[in-house]
From TrEMBL:
Family assignment from sequence similarity: Belongs to the 3-hydroxyacyl-CoA dehydrogenase family. In the central section; belongs to the 3-hydroxyacyl-CoA dehydrogenase family.
UniProt domain 3-hydroxyacyl-CoA dehydrogenase C-terminal: residue ranges: 518-600
Domain 3-hydroxyacyl-CoA dehydrogenase NAD binding: 335-514
Keyword Lyase: yes
UniProt cross-references to InterPro entries, sorted A to Z: 3-OHacyl-CoA_DH_NAD-bd, 3HC_DH_C, 6-PGluconate_DH-like_C_sf, 6PGD_dom2, ClpP/crotonase-like_dom_sf, Enoyl-CoA_hydra/iso, FA_oxidation_alpha_subunit, NAD(P)-bd_dom_sf
Protein name: 3-hydroxyacyl-CoA dehydrogenase/enoyl-CoA hydratase/carnithine racemase
UniProt pathway: Lipid metabolism; fatty acid beta-oxidation; Lipid metabolism; butanoate metabolism
Record GO biological process: fatty acid beta-oxidation
Amino acid sequence: MSKVENWRALLGGRSTDEVVTKALVRDVQLPYGAGTMALITLDNGFDHTKPNTFGPNGLFALNGALSEIAERTDLAAVGVTGKPFIFAVGADLKGAAALATREEALAIGALGHHVFRRLGELAIPSFAFVNGAAMGGGLEVALHCTYRTISSGVPAVALPECFLGLVPGWGGTQLLPRLIGPAKAIKLVIENPLSQNRMVKGKEAYELGVADAMFEPADFLEESLRWAARVVKGELAVERPAHEEDWDKTVADARFLVDMKLRGASPAPYRALDLIAQARTASRDEGFAAEDEALADLLMGDELRAGLYSFDLVQRRAKRPAGAPDRSLARKVTKVGVVGAGLMASQMALLFARRLEVPVVLTDLDQARLDKGVGYVHAEVDKLLGKGRVSADQANRLKALVTGSLTKDAFADADFVIEAVFEDMAVKKQVFAEVEAVVSAECVLATNTSSLSLTEMGAGLAHPERLVGFHFFNPVAVMPLLEIIRGAATDDATLATAFAVGKSLKKSSVLVKDAPAFVVNRLLTCFMGEVVSAVDEGTPLEVAEHALDGLGLPMSPFALLQLVGPAVGLHVAETLHEAFPDRFGVSENMAKLVAAGKPGVYRPDFTLDPEAVALFSGGTSPSTAEQVRERVLAALAREVRIMLDEGVVAAPQDIDLCMILGAGWPFHLGGITPYLDRTGVAQPRFLPPGVASLPA
């Protein structure tokens, strides 16, 4: 029995639900008399909304096509391209999660290597014509080819495996660094996945050296075939630059940065770095065998299941928010008003203008503040122009859309007005009373409050039903979460409009009940409160600060405090203490820090400020790092349970989504509720059996 037959016997039963990507072969006569190309089109039979993926049967299909091509003697070249808008996006993740044994995991890695490497080992040159999204195994197909062209319209090129708890396992860690050098390869294999799974577009992929030529989308395949013909005929020599960087130093520097970010919490990026280091000297067989071993280890680990759960949340649940009213109830928004012209308000104004492309007017109390706010927007537009993110015409239109006014009369024809003023109930109530006096009866009133009661805020309004919470996270342009809060009086039309606007802003919206501090700030305050209490009791600040490093959180507790500001943190703690005095305390030492005007416990160079640290001294009951960690996780589990019992959100998955997108809860942990389940902290469990380890 051949290797392929062995793999078919082992993996065939695991692929019953696979959407098979077929390898459709047709002969194409190359221009300029260059001969015949066997052109393979990868196509699973669906449109671009269901991208091409590779499960066992898809790999067997491509292998069969390559076997037939290898037997022919009339071909000058072979080409691979994808269906419209899609090249291929990698492995079938559902199938990967269903692998039951390490033997099966080794087999899927070896099968992919066996099939893909044939493209680079035929007797004739191979060409990848990357016409659409190419991710994971899809990009690896292209890397195995002798040459590559790419469309300038390709929206996404990536190796996202480390984001999911895997490594590129079909040649990516070996072929890519040899092609473009280790530094650029590390960017695609590790840095981008760990930066909210950043993708690059076709032009950037070409500039990185991933492709040898780039053509426009309108005639991409025709131009690619012309280019390939010239290569085949020897009229065009493809030259690739030599890489003179210090390979070992580049990998060592990257390992240091991964340590800073993850503190050893996630194995996948470290395995990827090991493989990239090995690629400098390993033979193809040795490198691919090492990828097989790494892939098999990671496929059998909890991290993959956790990553797939997180992936399912952000790809599916985030696109269908639980509890959102029918979209047909949403009102059209043709003008937006923003109360305030500070940094948060200015960030909002720019986002509304860019995404909604409607007039946005800022108001504030004096001209200097107003000018500063509008000036910020214009400066940010100039930065976008400088980076090539917008054209000169677009930049001029954006600047023209954002204006300022000293009176709220400018909101008279607005359909959506949001406040971003000081977090004080009296101030916000006064703002909305003034706004309601000038806007139309249909205008939605939104608050960006981070902790205050929406119901209380709307109590004095003539129409409290049109008040909705619209809580952004800072920085507004970057953070993907939007907590949409329904007050006691908020009606469906207002809520539907809020969700429609959130979608237009390209945010992931989660419906939240009007409860103190909502979801993210409530849990972060719980988290921070336990750490600060441990320090107040006498735990050395450095011990408490690093007690949860093993989770791989994006920031340590006091670094997070430095970012949000002690005054804001204290205010939210006071709000929650007022609501839940038995569970949320207010640190006297934190109040001292605020009174002292300190920005946190760190200096600008991020060394500890002795004066700030001294404000927390005096406790006599220190805890160990392990005790602090257990204390924090137990408090989080308790608070999550209470929030679910109170109906703050529809389901545990919504808390997970909020924490992943709004607080940077590590993707590889699979959401906070599955993590608390797996570690045994949560009793009873938050999720039904199986849901914590597989996509919902």
